[in-house]
Amino acid sequence: MNAPGGIGRRRVTPALGLRFILLAIVSLVLMVMDSRNNHLPQIRQIFSVAVYPVEMAVNFPFKGWRWVRNSFVERAFLLKENEELKSTQLGYDVRMQKMAALEVENRRLRAMLNSSSRINDRVLVAEILAVDLDPYRQRFSINRGLADSVYVGQALIDANGVVGQIVGVEAFTSEAVLISDADHAVPVSVNRNGLRTIAVGTGDSGRLRLPYVTNSADIKSGDLLVSSGLGGVFPSGYPVGRVLEVQRRPGQSFADVIAEPVAELDRDREVLLVWPESDTGQYGKANLAELEQ
């Protein structure tokens, strides 16, 4: 039994060895020919096309896992980035709202300073701190007082005209009354012809009365009223109001004349304190230096 088995092994082994050697020689020859003469690119392409589906099938699970992982990571990143952008946008929106308010305030201050540059009187900007809510008392407080040489009776103006006057002074604040207050009166003159009269408050911030204008007086709707300077409280030449309506009343001594203040009495946030030019020397130079800055 051993003889047949031994004979079979001796016959098979040389054949396998010979085939291995032949394949190795063929492989080497093909490699050398390919590296020197590039004879096998088409064969490689054919094999690559045949192997491509196998590569795709092998790589598909790994690519799928990477896609799922990246999708979750990117989604979390995008959500976080979206929240940060929303927060940043909200901050910018709030700043834009503040910028709009600052822009309006800047225009208002520039208008006031431009109006003050056209006059020779010394002025100082004051901020309105509080407004009296009593409908029968049109008064407000400002952030200037004795430390700024403010005095009782001092005139207040804005970019358009006369606002009111100081009625009480503290160390660092003052109380002022609007020209529309029912207990307040301003000596005025018609800018067109110099006709002098008195404008009295009505309690309505949009109305003034001129109760002492005779029926024969030369006054008409649209006339500009300016401060006359009589009484020494308000410097002369500042706009006070504009005539809205003139009703002649036959049989009576005086006409019914209604005017509208030119100052924005119900919208002002800053006002100008006025020192007449003749009184500038009575007060310290600190305010003048502050104004020039």
Tell me the count of domains.
2
Strand order of the largest sheet: 1-2-5-4-3-12
CATH superfamily of the largest domain: Rod shape-determining protein MreC, domain 1
Question: How many separate helices?
Answer: 3
Main β sheet profile: 6 strands, antiparallel, barrel
Oligomer: single chain
Helix content: 40-55%
Shape: rod-shaped
Q: What's the architecture of the largest domain in CATH terms?
A: Beta Barrel
CATH topological fold name of the largest domain: Thrombin, subunit H
CATH class of the largest domain: Mainly Beta
Mean pLDDT: 79
Q: Approximately how much beta-strand content do the residues carry?
A: 15-25%
Low-confidence stretches: 6-10, 279-293
What is the fold's blueprint, element by element?
Blueprint: H1 2-37, H2 41-117, E1 122-131, E2 139-142, E3 155-157, E4 162-169, E5 174-178, E6 185-190, E7 196-201, E8 208-209, E9 224-227, E10 239-247, E11 256-261, E12 270-275, H3 286-292
Antiparallel strand pairs: 1-2, 1-12, 2-5, 3-4, 3-12, 4-5, 6-7, 6-9, 7-8, 8-11, 9-10, 10-11
What features would you highlight for this structure?
6-stranded antiparallel barrel; rod-shaped; single chain; 6-stranded antiparallel β-barrel; 41% helix; alpha+beta; 3 helices; 2 domains; Thrombin, subunit H; disordered C terminus; 293 residues
Structural overview:
It is a single chain. This protein is of the alpha+beta class and 293 residues long. The protein has three helices and twelve strands, in the order ααββββββββββββα. The strands form two sheets. It has a six-stranded antiparallel β-barrel with strand order 1-2-5-4-3-12. Strands 6-7-8-11-10-9 form a six-stranded antiparallel β-barrel. It is rod-shaped. The chain starts with a helix and ends with a helix. The model is unreliable at 6-10 and 279-293 (pLDDT under 50).
